[in-house]
Amino acid sequence: MADSPRIAENRKARQYYEFLEFFEAGISLTGPEVKSLRAGQVSFGDSFVESVDGEAWLVGMRIAPYDKAGYAAQDPDRKRKLLLHAQEIHRIATKVEQKGLTVVPVKLYFKHGKIKVEIALARGRKLHDQREELKRRAEARDTERELARS
């Protein structure tokens, strides 16, 4: 989805979750938060998306306060509203309730001058699945090295 410059990517999410479906959402931000994002001052941490009263909220993402914004104090850990169509929010919320899935942010990027967040409907991986994935990646890396040497 992201055809524009990437701001940040949630690498930990790929390790802990198996992604099933992706959505692109706008995000409601203040001016100083946009400046901080342009500087790359963002941390996903244990962020997730929750649905409350037909609205989607991004919880747990930390956008560092912009140091040159003096007019108002910014809460770096506040909940931020995601801008999605009502049908999309309803569809995501139903899948989360029925199947026990979760929604996690995957990456932040610019698209036509706007900041977008890619969210994914995800299923948590078991510990043995995580280990198998790490082994598979290590083996693929080793074979690539061997092919490059010869």
Topology:
Layout: E1 6-9, H1 11-16, E2 17-27, H2 31-38, E3 42-43, E4 48-52, E5 55-59, E6 62-63, E7 80-83, H3 86-99, E8 102-111, E9 114-124, H4 127-149
Antiparallel strand pairs: 1-8, 2-7, 2-9, 3-6, 4-5, 5-7, 8-9
Shape, per Cα inertia axes: globular
The level of helicity is: 25-40%
Described by strand count, sense and barrel closure, the largest sheet is: 7 strands, antiparallel
Number-wise, the strands total 9
Mind explaining what this structure looks like?
The protein is built from 4 helices and 9 strands. It has 150 residues and is α+β, with helices and mostly antiparallel strands. The strands form 2 sheets. The chain has a 7-stranded antiparallel beta sheet with strand order 1-8-9-2-7-5-4. It has a two-stranded antiparallel sheet with strand order 3-6. The protein is globular.
Features:
7-stranded antiparallel sheet; 4 helices; single chain; alpha+beta; 150 residues
Would you summarize the structure shown here?
By secondary structure, the protein is of the alpha+beta class. The chain has helices at residues 11-16, 31-38, 86-99, 127-149; strands spanning 6-9, 17-27, 42-43, 48-52, 55-59, 62-63, 80-83, 102-111, 114-124.
